[in-house]
Write a structure and sequence with these properties.
seven-stranded parallel sheet; homodimer; 2 domains; 397 residues; globular; Rossmann fold
């Protein structure tokens, strides 16, 4: 019998429906606030959701009463929620993604406290803590339930509302991770009021990004409200966070590739250099700060390439300035920066795909980047930034 | 403004289609055999699939020419396949799932050899090696592509063809893992010819299991071909492997819950005790051997509970004996065995759900197990096994 004649096959095919809600609320731990208890849907026989809280140490500094308030909330809803012990505290910022021991701390607690596939990890904190806790939840028992409460602008409008988790390894951002949609996301704007100015403004760059890629009206709105945001107006920030989150959710659910099986990564505008700048700065640069520089750089590349009009380019730089975000960092001159393009290709797989813009609100994919021209873009951006600094105060917001 | 009035929500909802083929072939590394090259679909610009091989050390002992034959196969198909270096060799058997360093070895290679989300891990070996390599593939870059070539009966009819991966941690089977369907599975029956007698027969218990749960005609077929299988007839084993794989695929794709979000785990018949017996025996018992004992035990429980007829119960025990599988092990007397029920509940989450049978080919779920009766079932099974041993040779197959 020939080999070909012997070969037979079975086909395994199925579809899965995914769904989760992103809630916007104020003071989620007010016992009268029903959002969190409704997010923690229990299907155990007794109707009580068992919950392991994981909390960001930086958030705890500003909200030292958080564990007590969470415990009081759970006690008030004892028929629906049972906390599985005290919160696991992870270090705020990228540190929680840099050292695998923090994921192990969450896994230890999942094991010790018998968190099963019908119980919850409740991850409360910045994007990095939510990512690390979400990764632990994603791999324990092949996935325990996750409810995220992102506490930063970046977390609430981007990192905390999507379908990914991850930690860094081998010196690479998010080398380890899974696609694992949460059960729910609860965005509590109360957390935003205690952010440092740096965290407050750095989260806005992802909103600028999605506006540049998809929504010129939102970009114009951001130009209008940038001064209020820079002055820490919570209502103005609420407009930014909600619309940015909405555009992200539309992207995830509407692009046909939520788990990124293709080569395209249309929301990664400015991100190849942003990831590298963060590393080269040894995390001195926040993700959002690096993204602002990355977008400014790739916009400048698009300008030099003749793809983007000078006027649009100036609006991009001016908006970042109005939001208080720097356009450059010393790491732009590190020769290792351009190696980030190759790493980015590897992370995507296959073809290099970089998203640029050819107008405000119009993203386009390119598959070739001229390294020489990218070098010129760095020089041009540095010059433009110096000029803007010199005229700061007279520039229009 | 009241809290309730402020609360707003966005809903993220999407569907994903999953699909993969399970191929049955003989001598997949024959350059004339197209199955593997077709399974390694490339979408890189050059049409070449980059492949990191991960191979089971136990398989290598019996097939020392495997790396050379794989390299020759890739060279013959150089327009379609490029090997990313020599195979990573993982220890055969449960050892590769017991020590997280083996997952790290695969992750190191994925990083060192720049395996991206469009490149492949080709996992070749027993169920444990395929599980460990698959876990590494599942978490690197949030999932690189995986093609599995299970080399054992158990791998080809069960462990290697589904949607899960995992390793052991905290002394618990598969504590860490993900749901990550492979791109394809290639079952090469040539690998079965070099299995030890223990590995050959231990893989048959999963076929007995699915027959007992779902297919009385398959069970009768197994009774008929058991002597040929015990005599290492490859054609008879092919019948068992293919029908068992088919029932598994039908289950995964047809039950509406391939990623096991509910409490039910209908294919885990006999598995609460099997997992525990493996641990208590310090892995002296193979998974399939433990499953045979676990099924015999839960069938005996069903008998004592009045759920299963005496005649059906005897057929279950007789088939395992005809296949050369033991019905008991000293670990049945370990008091820690019954603690396995609680661990099983935790792993499932929520409600305890154990699948029993009320007839050959008819699985039923129960949510209560009487520990006293389970103790009696152990005693009854030990007695029945001793009786069968005494009459071995005269018993009908």
């Amino acid at each position: 019998m020939s080999t070909a004649a012997r070969a037979t096959r079975l086909d395994a095919a199925f579809s899965l429906d995914y769904g989760y809600a992103v809630h916007f609320t104020r003071d989620a731990f007010d016992p009268a606030n029903p959002v969190l208890v409704e997010a923690l849907r229990a299907d155990a026989a007794d109707g009580v959701a068992r919950v392991l809280p994981v909390v960001d140490s930086g958030l705890l500094e500003h909200h030292p009463d958080l564990p007590a308030r969470l415990a009081a909330y759970a006690a008030h809803h004892a028929d629906r929620i049972a906390l599985a012990g005290e919160p696991v505290v992870l270090p705020g910022g990228e540190a929680s993604k840099q050292d695998p021991r923090h994921v192990e701390e969450v896994l230890d607690a999942i094991n010790d406290r018998a968190i099963d596939r019908h119980a919850y990890v409740l991850a409360i904190g910045g994007g990095a803590v939510v990512d690390a806790a979400g990764y632990a939840a994603g791999i324990a028992h092949r996935g325990v339930r996750l409810v995220r409460m992102p506490s930063t602008v970046l977390g609430q409008n981007d990192a905390g509302i999507g379908v990914k988790n991850g930690i860094n390894a081998y010196g690479k951002k998010n080398f380890l991770g899974t696609f694992a949609p949460p059960v729910a996301v609860v965005n509590d704007e109360r957390f935003l009021t205690t952010l440092s100015d740096e965290d407050w403004r750095s989260g806005t760059s992802e909103a600028v990004k999605v506006a540049l890629l998809k929504d010129p009206a939102f970009f114009a709105e951001l130009e209008r409200i940038a001064p209020a945001i820079a002055a820490r107006d919570l209502e103005a920030m609420g407009v930014l966070v909600r619309r940015c989150a909405e555009l992200h959710i539309e992207h995830i659910t509407g692009n046909g590739d939520p788990f990124e099986l293709g080569s395209a990564r249309p929301l990664d505008f400015g991100h190849w250099s942003a990831h590298k700048l963060e590393q080269l700065s040894h995390l001195r640069l926040r993700h959002g700060e690096a993204v602002a520089i990355g977008i400014a750089l790739d916009s400048t590349y698009a300008l030099l390439d003749g793809m983007l009009a000078d006027d649009d380019w100036r609006r991009v730089l001016a908006l970042f300035q109005a939001l208080g975000l720097d356009l450059v960092a010393p790491e732009l001159e590190d020769p290792a920066l351009l190696a980030g393009l190759q790493e980015f290709r590897e992370h995507l797989g296959g073809l290099l795909t970089v998203t640029l813009i050819d107008a405000i609100g119009s993203g386009v994919e390119v598959h070739e980047i001229d390294l020489g021209m990218m070098g010129q873009a760095i020089t041009r951006l540095q010059a433009a930034s110096a000029e803007l600094d010199a005229t700061r105060g007279t520039a229009k917001g």
